[in-house]
Amino acid sequence: MAQLDFLRDLVILFGASIVVVYCFNRLHVPAVVGFLVAGALLGPYGLDVVNDVARVELLAEVGVVMLLFTIGVEVSLERVTSLSTLVCVGLIQIGTAIVLSVLVGMAVGLPVNQGVF
User: Fold this and answer.
1) Residues whose CB falls within 8 Å of the CB of residue 51, separated by 6 or more in sequence, listed in order
2) Number of independent structural domains in the chain
3) Which pTM does this prediction carry?
4) pLDDT digits over 51-72, tens only?
5) Are residues 21 and 9 in the same domain?
């Protein structure tokens, strides 16, 4: 029976998301905002349509997967390669932050793995 409750909640959220995203699209507001508003409205702290917190967390994970899929479909490989210098600078920044964290951690007596963390 729990599977049917999950499926019911999923259908309700997808249906509400379609309506909210359509309205937000007409107002020239990004779809991501529409998804967030639909989730907040129907969740346990909104209209309480979906009131099981564990189920809300699971539906949120499904939403993140759907959002990442949508972003992956919209971004072309040519656009990613055109941003290669930006990606390289970002990787250098992340690497520098990790190295500095390790050095500061070692300076205060932490092991390397805790400094990385």
Assistant:
1) 44
2) 2
3) 0.52
4) 777 777 777 787 788 778 877 7
5) yes
Verify that 70 and 80 share a domain, yes or no: no
| Residue tagged 């779809």 (tokens) | 31
Interhelix angle 2-26/53-74, nearest 10 degrees: 50
- Side chain identity at residue 14, one-letter code: F
Range of the domain at 65: 1-74
Paired tokens of 58: 């699971």
Q: How far apart are CA 36 and CA 16, in angstroms?
A: 11
Query: What are the C-alpha distances in Å from 83 to residues 69, 73, 87, 91?
Result: 20, 17, 6, 12
Query: Which pair of structure tokens corresponds to residue 53?
Result: 């917190």
Q: Do 1 and 56 reside in the same domain of the chain?
A: yes
